Amino acid sequence: MYCEFYIDVFFAVNLLMNFWTLCLANLLRRGTASPWRAFWGAFIGAAFLCGFWIFAGEISTAGLVIFYSIAVLAMIYTGCGFQSLNGLFMAFAAFFGASFLLGGILLFAEPFLGKRKFPFLVITTAAYLILYTGIKLCKYLKGKRSLLCEVQITQKDRKIKIKGLYDTGNRLRDTGTGKPVCVMEYSSFLPLLDKKGADALLEFCKMKLEKDGWEETEALKELQPRFLFYTSVGCQKGLLPVVCADCMTVYTEEGKREVRDVFIGLSRTALSADNSFQMIINPGILKS
Questions:
Q1: CA separation for the pair 254, 146 (Å, rounded)
Q2: Prediction pTM value
Q3: Are residues 95 and 69 in contact, defined by beta-carbon separation less than 8 angstroms?
Q4: Rounded to 5°, angle at Cα 24 from 20 and 29
Q5: pLDDT digit string (tens) for 122-175?
Q6: Domain parsing of the chain, residue ranges
Q7: Which GO MF terms does the UniProt record name (predicted)?
Q8: Which of 4, 78, 88, 138 could be disulfide-bonded to 41 (CB atoms 3.0-4.6 Å)?
């Protein structure tokens, strides 16, 4: 039996399918990998499979499974990235889940491919956009429950854990550094300070600190306190005290994200009526 095999077409088809699958896997696991990273992961996966077909003398089912598993691992490492065993498992699940969904749509579109009514690129791109829109819609409908996460604040040798709300409406940025600013309840921040530091911070917030007192309060100098103008619902123009904490760690379903020298605005009023969260997380903090 004679069969023509075009290695360039095989490579191009796998490159495109791997790219869309990695993009969907990143979306499913809320990854932050760029499209360029997904492209290089897709390139590696396509090259692996082409190499297998070229250099393998006899193709066995077991060999194909092993080789494909290595190719998927290389694709996920390059195209998504993972920092833990749990992250690896989640990335694998997201990749094969995206492959299953994408393959299902292409199976439905097979009659159009057979009759060549539409190019393969158009069909696969349309399938990706359908899945992308569906995943985005499901995430939107999931609501704010998934936006709550655990946050750990570290200041010197003291640590506290609180609940944070990921709020896309928080656009606060420090005017001096341009860094994003999270908002936290004042009372929740106090356990990070000793009595002297807490008293100095209170005086600063009341704007009663003398110049000489500023020079002598080492704890307050380390917090780099400042005031920030802001607007919010019900407040056209406000003044928010802002301090700098040593470290903030955000724990999500995908893992943890650690941010150094994070700026935190201190609110004297409760952020939630039922005390379900004590911090409003600026979305820019996870991208910095």
A1: 12
A2: 0.53
A3: no
A4: 150
A5: 778 888 888 888 877 776 666 545 578 899 999 988 999 999 988 877 888 988
A6: 7-142, 147-286
A7: aspartic-type endopeptidase activity
A8: 78
